[in-house]
Amino acid sequence: MGLEVLKFGGSSVANAARMMHVAEIVSRHITSGNRVVVVTSAMHGVTNQLIELTKQFCSPCHNREYDAVISSGEQVAAGLLSMCLCSAGIPAKSFNAWQIPILAGGEFSNSSISSVCCDKILGELDAGVVPVITGFQGINDGAICTIGRGGSDATACAVANSIDADRCFIYTDVDGVYTADPRISIDCRRLDAISYDEMYELSLCGATVLQARSVLAAKKYGIEISVVSSFSDGGGTVVADSTSYVSTKWKIAGIAHHSGVTVATVKKQGDICERCLASDALFIRRISDNKYIIPQSIKGECNADYDDDVGLVTMVGRDLGNCAGLTEEAISSLSSQSISTKATLCGELSVSLVVPRLQTELAVNTIHKMIFG
């Protein structure tokens, strides 16, 4: 008998009909001889609604209360999903982070899970009950905290590690990891497998299919992740030790893009927040001695002048440290579409190009065609 963690994203639990379909998915896993733990996000759009509500009152001194408010969507989803499972003949109980407990450290709104107690989860499984656990939440010194947007992925990986699960399934609205964002690239292709390192780099550089921290946790604990669709059968991508490349010219797994970035020009060292530089969940790269590309979300924490008219397009793959030929061909391809390259950044796993913000999507498709045909 296998032990599996199934995480369902907001679109998968968006309404009663979607939750009934989730119950069918859970039933299939159980019928296949597995014991199942469910982790759920808030229903689609709810967290954004809660964030908008807090803007009427929020100030920096309200971080604790802010997290208490925006984490409540997961409690609603867990309760409703448990009711749905019970109605379908599957015994289930909902659990908040404090009831497990899931402990976390760090600052509010950007905490990291430190431990998950397995006793209650395993006890419910032994009693024939499916635990439905709130994602996104942790407990920090007795208070509810949140672990960053997309944090339910990290919750699922932490729970899987705690109970020594055989596999962790991330159910979402796409049937795997693609060579580019399928919302903007009609020619993108699904990968059968991708390595932890390349998936982390893609997530850090703008891909939203998995939270970056969840990939780090999966690699640390050796948890195999299957990214699958709750809307269709078949397909899927395994996140583990290796990548099934579809490019024959370069070992490139895919292309990520990020239009919510800015180029920060600092006057002196120390003007970029040290906490931000040390983050494992933020894309921050040095362009030159006094220029950095950073998320727009942390502009207020840096003493700098900003250029917001930028987007980031990143090719992620293996052995890209000697990337001169790849970079030159990419710049040439962009130039043929009248797209200027403002800066380039090269690393072992990635080559990033800074382009005009409004041309980001065109740049993704241009480079995708250059690499994958």
What's the topology here?
Elements lengths: L1 E7 L7 H16 L2 E7 L5 H9 L8 H8 L1 H16 L4 E4 L6 E4 L6 E5 L2 H8 L3 E5 L2 E4 L2 E4 L4 H12 L4 E6 L20 E3 H9 L7 H10 L3 E5 L7 E4 L11 E7 L2 E6 L7 H4 L7 E2 L4 E5 L8 E4 L3 E7 L6 H13 L6 E4 L3 E6 L4 H13 L1
Parallel strand pairs: 1-2, 1-9, 2-6, 3-6, 9-11, 10-12
Antiparallel strand pairs: 4-5, 7-8, 11-12, 13-18, 14-16, 14-17, 15-16, 18-20, 19-20
Describe this protein with a few key phrases:
373 residues; 8-stranded mixed β-sheet; 4-stranded antiparallel β-sheet; 32% helix
Tell me what you see in this structure.
By secondary structure, this protein is α/β, with parallel strands linked by helices. It has a domain of 172 residues: Carbamate kinase (3-Layer(aba) Sandwich). It has eleven helices and 20 strands. The strands form five sheets. The protein has an eight-stranded mixed beta sheet, with helices on both faces. Strands 13-18-20-19 form a four-stranded antiparallel beta sheet, sandwiched between helices. α6 packs parallel to α8, α7 runs antiparallel to α8 and α10 packs across α11. The longest helix is centred in the first third of the chain and has 16 residues. The protein starts with a strand and ends with a helix.
